[in-house]
Amino acid sequence: MSLAHSSAASTSSAIPSPKGARNAKFAEFSTQALLPITSRPDLVFTHGKGGWLYDHDGKRYLDFIQGWAVNSLGHCHPVMRDALATQSGMLLNPSPAYYNVPMIELADLLAKLSGLGKVFFANSGAEANESAIKLARKWGQLHPNASGGARFEIITFKNAFHGRTLATMSASGKPGWDTIFAPQVPGFPKADLNDIASVEALIGPDTVAVMLEPIQGEAGVVPATEAFLKALRALTKARGLLLIVDEVQTGCGRTGTLFSHQQAGIVPDIMTLGKGIGGGVPLAAMLCGDEFAVFQPGDQGGTYNGNPLMCAVGLAVMRTVSAPGFLEFVRAQADYLSAGLQHLSSRYGGEGERGAGLLRALLLGRDIGPQLVEAAREMTPDGLLLNSARPNLLRFMPALNVSRDEIDQMLSMLDALLAKHV
Ligand SMILES: *Cc1c(COP(=O)(O)O)cnc(C)c1O
């Protein structure tokens, strides 16, 4: 052990630090100290600007992943850099036990934009969802069933994704996740998306809520239909259940409206936000209607929750996304991207495309997604970063301010790839 440790130490001191390097070799980086959690390609990103990322070797990549639908304004947007610079010179963290200015302003903005009166800040989507689960269980204690028992069951959906904590993994319906870290947190029966009878069949005396993504992102951009969302809203109201929407991926302008559920004309009781709200920094939120704000002091919290640095960035992002004209722009770019993807699909015999706003999937009709992702990344002189959420499709989540030029470049690169691989 100590031998291995000292040899690793001497290796790293023998090689000059490649931090921030341009034109470095991948082998110069000692990556072995990183716990392997995913198989990463042999490249190290050093900087990014707008729609482009640059690697250790100076090669650039057109980025249609954007940190997994996170960088709403692209890489290193000036409004975010300004917010970080200004706030970092003022106050980083007074503790969550005190108010700070960005926390107050962002909560107020989110409440106004969403119509949900109360906001709790978190650091990740999973944590925001944990909060929603806790809030629903608390509400179920205060509103028990006919025999006086606390209600705690939350109906979720097959193939859903709600995060990687134990409770949010249990709420998720990803195949295999029920056994990977068994035992699961109990109380998350799974219904079928877009099948209201399957939800109704699961409602029992312990049921307190139904929770879903308006569009299942990780499942491959699978939308809940407008009719289903409306039926779910009516059903939950009629049966005294809370409706929780997980808008971690679909929220904050991603789908062409500020929040995706607005397109179905429904109002949820609880909503969670993450990813795009921080534009790339760790920020998330749980929102609820005033009547559901049942946490007592001490029930919920967290060291970094509502810290002014992240809230200042979130405020800059949300002001930009909610500014007049921004969402119209997103919808115009989305129509353009959608038409381009449809065109490619008919040209190469695929199964069309789907999605909302700038969260879209191209249905390939065969399991070549991972192959295309790799070939796209390895293209020269410029690479292309794509995601294959399922082997038979590609998912697109560019910056919300993506340009037509960038969409055109992506489509022509994808055209060349499909010509080779189909
Ligand atoms: C990404 C995602 C999460 C988890 O967010 P983290 O910030 O990774 O914890 C939860 N729900 C949905 C719908 C997501 O897409």
From TrEMBL:
Primary site of residence: cytoplasm
Pfam families: Aminotran_3
Places the protein is found: Cytoplasm
Location of region: Disordered: 1-20
Protein name (Swiss-Prot/TrEMBL): Acetylornithine aminotransferase
The keyword Protein transport is assigned to this record: no
EC number(s) reported in the record: 2.6.1.11
NCBIfam families: PRK01278.1, PRK03715.1
Annotated positions of the N6-(pyridoxal phosphate)lysine modification: 275
Name of encoding gene: argD
Family: Belongs to the class-III pyridoxal-phosphate-dependent aminotransferase family. ArgD subfamily.
